[in-house]
Amino acid sequence: MSLLDLRTVRKRRSSGGREVLVLENESLSIDAGELVAVWGLRGSGRTSLLRLVAGIDAPDAGTVRFDGRDLAEHGDRILGREIVYCQKAFRTAESQPAIDEVLLGLLVNGITGKEARTRAGEALERVGSGGLGRRRVCELDGDERTRLALANGLALGPRLLLIDEPVAGVDLHRRDEILLLLRSLADEGIAVLMTVGDWTGVTGADQSFSIGDGELRGSGKRALQPVVDLSLRRQASG
User: Fold this and answer.
1) How does 98-120 read in b/e, with b if 16+ C-beta sit within 10 Å?
2) Contact between residue 94 and residue 136 where contact means Cβ atoms under 8 Å apart
3) Do 209 and 201 form a contact (C-beta atoms < 8 A)?
4) Is the Cβ–Cβ distance between 144 and 97 less than 8 Å?
5) Phi, psi of 135 (to 5 degrees)
6) What number of other Cβ atoms are within 10 A of residue 160's Cβ?
7) Quick one: what percent of the chain has pLDDT higher than 90?
8) What b/e sequence results for 201-237 when a residue is b if at least 16 CB atoms lie within 10 Å of its CB, and e otherwise?
9) Structural domain boundaries of the chain?
């Protein structure tokens, strides 16, 4: 049994006073430890797909199951625990230290005190930003905001991590580092589903899909070449 299963899902949403088809009888399965990328143009339904997978929105038809459980019935007990939706729109004030954002997410889930501090610090270290916690949110660049969003999610110990456009707003020379980080999280056993705005973001994914006009068009697992670390590129050209 796959960790996540979408079966013949149909979904429409309203946008600008008109109805937009997101999915029309589409299916998708994700296993633990898989990195899955979905590419699409703005308005294609990328974010709507993530909201379905998170259990935030319900399908008009079909089912979305996580570890055998229907998210329409159990989503409120799964989202924020086993499924975490990482977002770069933070809840703390821009003037606050970045670690407060991670601590707030833990506090909402009933984790406080020393345990919260420990988990927040470990999550920041895991995303390669141990010193990030002391910085104010307003001082963070695109790369650091993505890492903070991921730290928020990792601190909760999820089985499935969702993130919308992780490399959006990230400098070109740092994008590969973010994609490598996501690949490494999947290799540790966490399922990762991300949406991307251009094809470069699907490199290294176990499964890759495009979304548009209600369809998911996809490739087989590990059909793409792995991400190449920029440091290795520089060494090869040096």
Assistant:
1) bbbbbbbbbeeeebeeeebbebb
2) yes
3) no
4) no
5) -80, 150
6) 25
7) 65
8) bbbbbbbbbbbbebbbebeeeeebeebeeeeeeeeee
9) 92-157
Q: 197, 54 in Cβ contact below 8 A?
A: no
Cβ–Cβ < 8 Å for 61, 8: yes
**Per-residue confidence (pLDDT) for residue 44, from 0 to 100:** 87
Interior/surface letters 72-89, b for 16+ CB within 10 angstroms, e for the rest: eebbeebbbebbbbbebe
93 neighbors 137 (Cβ within 8 angstroms) = yes
Q: What is residue 148's three-state secondary structure?
A: helix
Across 133-160, average pLDDT: 93
- What region, left, alpha or beta, does residue 76 occupy, with left being phi > 0 and alpha being psi -120 to 50 degrees? alpha
- Phi and psi at residue 8, in whole multiples of 5°? 40, 55
C-alpha 68 chain-centroid distance: 21
pLDDT bracket for residue 229 (50, 70, 90): very low
Q: Do residues 49 and 22 touch, judged by C-beta distance below 8 A?
A: yes
d(CA 112, CA 88): 23
